[in-house]
């Protein structure tokens, strides 16, 4: 029963990214028992509208029978085999070929791992190995961005631009640098978004020149920064990054863990922004979160060198290319294609959700901006809509709004002073209406707490 599970959880389960004192004060975790479409059910029978697709991953929605069937069939036929002994399995090969077909030209090979973090760690090793093979072993530094999120392993945390994560564990590792994010809202209206995008790109070039291009291995960025607060770059940003990386001979990594598989209304964020990456990191939406799987798409330039000049690359995970995960991924991609979910996110449900939020939040005293791209977006919470002045207290109001959402059976996420959303691409218009209505309620309650309403 619920009380017993909460007691066991309190005694034995260490939650990811959780303050356990706060969790205990709440009386323990909410226990989720079922899910269908965008709806979760908890152990008390309450239904919760999940406007975060779990953790930005359940792109096709919960409860898809064909994904479960694909897993069952594969578990029955061949529950496990691997690629270490010059062996492979059919779903692994088919998925690699499918990813090569879907991703932009020039990314022909997939290396599989289990999580976005592992995939990014893999890229760090591959990129350094590549430069060593090219006779430039000193090209070792990775440049990431403030508010960037790339995972929780040692190298991925080092790529992150989050100070709180660096403070725990003595990170970043040597050889990781960071630059500003293309976050025009922070310019407080003092320059146009496009000018801000150019400024943020210039900061990348200045950092490369300060470190010395001969020392820089790669630049990493999420097409739209997700966990850092859904930071949508101005269109001026990525073309400049392409140019800078090309001119200074720096590898470009597009971390598409959130943006991939239709989230931005394109198969990949790189297509939305015209990014020309040497590596692409994929996870989350690759299986819609039904089972763990990630992939590194390796650009031909790097792949040719590593394969033809590198001999054995001493890297791989027991579950690299797990057949069950790959079978589920193939079934998931079939659903996305058959239902046209990528176009739906761009032309139909994405714009609808955004317009609904704009409608219900029109003139709301604490809403400074609503921004969205496809099926991901953010609502910026401010004290003064005109000047965009923030509330005092250093970025805590997003969490207040998140709690009001949660208490009213809507899941959105609080990041600093914003409330962010990334629902399943299969969300219906009625569900978008309901999400907007509940978001309004949560923001009204937040405004009351802050003494504004
Ligand atoms: N990269 C991005 C852009 C992410 O958003 C995440 C997770 O949220 C990761 C990497 C890490 O993925 P994982 O949690 O599967 O290790």
UniProtKB/TrEMBL annotation:
> Which Gene Ontology molecular-function terms are recorded?
pyridoxal phosphate binding; transaminase activity
| Record lineage | Bacteria, Pseudomonadati, Pseudomonadota, Alphaproteobacteria, Rhodospirillales
The record's listing under PROSITE patterns reads: AA_TRANSFER_CLASS_3 (PS00600)
> Which keywords does this chain's UniProt record carry?
Aminotransferase, Pyridoxal phosphate, Transferase
Signal peptide (UniProt feature, chain positions): none
Enumerate the Pfam families for this protein.
Aminotran_3
Q: Which SUPFAM superfamilies match?
A: PLP-dependent transferases
Q: One GO CC term of this entry? A: cytosol
**What is the protein name for this chain?**
Aspartate aminotransferase family protein
Cofactor(s) named in the record: pyridoxal 5'-phosphate
Name the family the entry cites. Belongs to the class-III pyridoxal-phosphate-dependent aminotransferase family.
